[in-house]
Design a protein that fits this description.
The strands form five sheets. Strands 11-12-15-16-17-18-19-20 form an eight-stranded parallel beta barrel. The termini are far apart. It is α/β, with parallel strands linked by helices. Helices cover about 35% and strands about 15% of the residues. The chain is elongated and about 140 Å long. Helix 4 crosses helix 6 and helix 10 crosses helix 12.
């Protein structure tokens, strides 16, 4: 059957009609009293809801205040013993709070305060904790919030970024406390197993972090200073150690800095003799047989050099007149040959009494003490001198003892005074003068640099004004005659980089600007292929010495104080085998250049008397002959730095072929 759907509006009247039984719907009246009552109830309900929300807000604020108060108490607990009384009093109040709130407060407080306690423990919380507790709490909260706001970000430590994650800015002996202060800086905080950074000590011969025995720990921060005992001159001395900061990662320790050595050993020096500025740069490799004569005084020598092969001074002696000299260092006893030590006592005392600045050249020849020879240099070599052994504990300790003995004896303590110490001889000439197996330049320099540091720290810890030098020859840009040797420039660059990376010290350079070849008699003439006017020149002689002093003025070569490093020409000379006049003219030419160059401290002419082994090679380098006769260079040497210089040196203008010294002299 068919139907038509109706809308709801159409259906409604029908329903109403049924409900009203066909009657018409009445209009409803409004009960005003009831409406008013309903409005009142609604208003009261809303008021109760507002009150409830206000109470909830108040309770939340109270909980936040308790969190801040708890954090402040944790901060105060770390910075003031006085705050402990108030902590206990208020913690009793906190006990009344619910267990959930108490747990939350504790976790939040400890988490937020751990960083803030360290960050601000030296600030006003410590100052005010015993004065006004309320103000202290306010200050603590303020600093806490500021600290959290400025808290560095935390960064994961990986194998790639670990070594450079942080930097040891300095490692210094504190003059007031006598302790070692190791200062570390970083941009971020390392993510690790706990909230601490750990300071480790490594021996000079160690190349990586070993074991779990750290020295001290401190809470993580972007800047920290660790202080540890120096233990000077004991079996546990740290004078020659290097220091590393590490974190605990996955149960093991991981280094986050590169190693750093102590760089101011002079702070603890017993002796600090003045380094006198002499009136002349004129020096000489002296003949000990002539020390009783007046020759050095007649020549006007102001600087002297003398070699110390270690085999001569080490070991006992049976001579009753010169008993063995025993020396105790770092808890161990060492024996020195009394007769040879007496010889050096005489030489250095004689030179000191003449007002001569003395340079000692320490040479590592074959001796009865194989621990001084590097393990990789103990076979296959026929060189007169070998690489020092700083590769193990025995070698390191012996080097330190020898250096300390020499400094103690020759720092003005009654046996003469040595102010300059040259470590080794022409170390770039590996196979000839510093024998060790061939290796890469960084590896080779690292072996030498570790030994150099030990000498440096030992010497300056006793004579605070001593100067220590690396020795290089004239093969600047490349090795020309040394078999599998190195250019002086590459050694100098790597040496400078190595020392700066692990703690910069005030090393100096002892250069040997001989002619090339050595038998060349004319200092002013050279093969332009080898002697050039640029920093890549294959050879540095007196003709282009300015290349070296210009190079030492480069920013990367300066000391930390911005000074040009000390330079001495510790060995140089010209042969008379091609005529004494040429030798004399070459000396005058060289000295005029040296005198005009402010960056050269001294020159040490080789030598006072000809050496038979050198004469056999055509190198008659002495001022005097083997028989003691004076060569023509004697007068030029004597007067070159005096008011009478022109009378005795201007002959060289004719020999050189110039009319004035201004043609070769350039003020530097």
């Amino acid at each position: 059957m068919g139907t038509t759907d109706r809308t709801d509006d159409e259906k409604a009247p029908a329903k109403d009609a049924v409900k009203e039984n066909g009657k018409k719907k009445k209009k409803r009246s409004i009960d005003k009293a009831k409406v008013a009552e309903n409005k009142r109830k609604i208003k009261e309900k809303k008021a109760r809801q507002r009150e409830k929300r206000a109470q909830e807000r108040k309770a939340g604020d109270r909980k936040k205040r308790w969190i801040i108060v708890a954090v402040c108490f944790v901060v105060l607990a770390g910075v003031s013993g006085f705050g402990g009384f108030y902590i206990q009093q208020h913690m009793d109040m906190l006990a009344a709070e619910s267990a959930a709130v108490e747990a939350m407060v504790h976790m939040e407080a400890m988490k937020l305060a751990e960083y803030s306690k360290t960050q601000h423990r030296k600030d006003s919380v410590r100052q005010n904790a015993g004065k006004d507790t309320t103000q202290a709490l306010v200050d603590a909260a303020r600093y806490m919030i500021k600290g959290i706001k400025n808290r560095p970000k935390e960064v994961e430590v990986t194998a790639e970024n670990a070594a450079d994650f942080a930097t040891i800015e300095s490692c210094l002996i504190n003059a007031e406390t006598g302790k070692i202060d190791v200062t570390m800086k970083a941009e971020d905080l390392a993510v690790s197993d706990d909230g601490y950074y750990y300071l480790f000590e490594e021996k000079a011969y160690q190349s990586s972090l070993e074991g779990t025995e750290y020295l001290i720990e401190d809470q993580k921060d972007v800047e920290l200073t660790f202080s540890v005992n120096l233990n000077y001159n004991t079996a546990s001395s740290r004078l020659f150690s290097k220091f590393v900061v590490a974190v605990k990662k996955n149960g093991s320790f991981l280094a986050i800095t590169k190693p750093h050595y102590i760089t101011n050993p002079e702070v603890i020096a017993k002796y600090k003799p003045s380094f006198e500025n002499t009136s002349s740069k004129k020096g000489l490799l002296v003949d000990p047989e002539k020390l009783q004569s007046a020759e050095l005084d007649d020549l006007g020598v102001k600087h002297a050099a003398y070699n110390i092969p270690l085999s001569r001074i080490l070991g006992q002696t049976s001579n009753d007149f010169y008993p063995t000299v025993y020396y105790t260092y770092n808890g161990r006893n060492y024996a020195f040959n009394g007769q040879i030590i007496a010889e050096y006592d005489y030489i250095f005392t004689n030179l000191t009494n003449r007002g001569i600045t003395t340079t000692a050249i320490v040479l590592n020849d074959i001796s009865a003490h194989p621990e001084l020879i590097h393990p990789k240099a103990r076979s296959g070599g026929h060189a007169p001198y070998f690489a020092f052994n700083a590769a193990d504990g025995s070698g390191t300790e012996t080097i330190a003892a020898v250096a300390s003995f020499l400094a103690s004896r020759y720092s003005g303590s009654g046996h003469g005074k040595v102010m300059n110490w040259v470590i080794g001889n022409e170390i770039n000439a590996r196979s000839e003068w510093n024998h060790i197996e061939h290796m890469s330049t960084p590896a080779y320099v690292d072996e030498y640099a570790r030994a150099f540091r030990i000498f440096y720290n030992a010497l300056l810890s006793i004579n605070g004004n001593a100067r220590v030098y690396i020795s290089l020859d004239q093969q600047w840009g490349k090795s020309l005659y040394s078999k599998n040797g190195y250019g002086s420039k590459e050694i100098l660059d790597e040496f400078n980089r190595n020392l700066k990376a692990e703690g910069n010290i005030d090393w100096g350079l002892a250069q040997h600007p001989y002619n090339y070849p050595l038998t060349s008699a004319k200092a002013w003439q050279s093969n332009s292929k080898y002697v050039q006017e640029n920093e890549n020149t294959p050879v540095i002689t007196m003709k282009n010495l300015h290349v070296l002093t210009d190079y030492l003025q480069k920013p990367e070569m300066l000391t930390d104080d911005g000074e040009v490093r000390h330079l001495i020409l510790s060995e140089m000379g010209y042969t008379s085998s091609q005529g004494q006049e040429l030798q004399s003219a070459s000396f005058v030419y060289a000295y005029k250049i040296i005198e005009a160059n402010q960056y050269v401290d001294s020159m040490l002419f080789s030598r006072e008397t000809d050496a038979p082994s050198e004469v056999a090679q055509g190198l008659d380098l002495g001022i005097c002959t083997l028989g003691g006769g004076r060569k023509s260079i004697y007068e030029a040497y004597k007067y070159v730095d005096t008011p009478e210089s022109a009378k005795y040196t201007d002959f060289a203008l004719r020999v050189i072929g110039i009319s004035s010294w201004s043609e070769v002299i350039k003020k530097r």
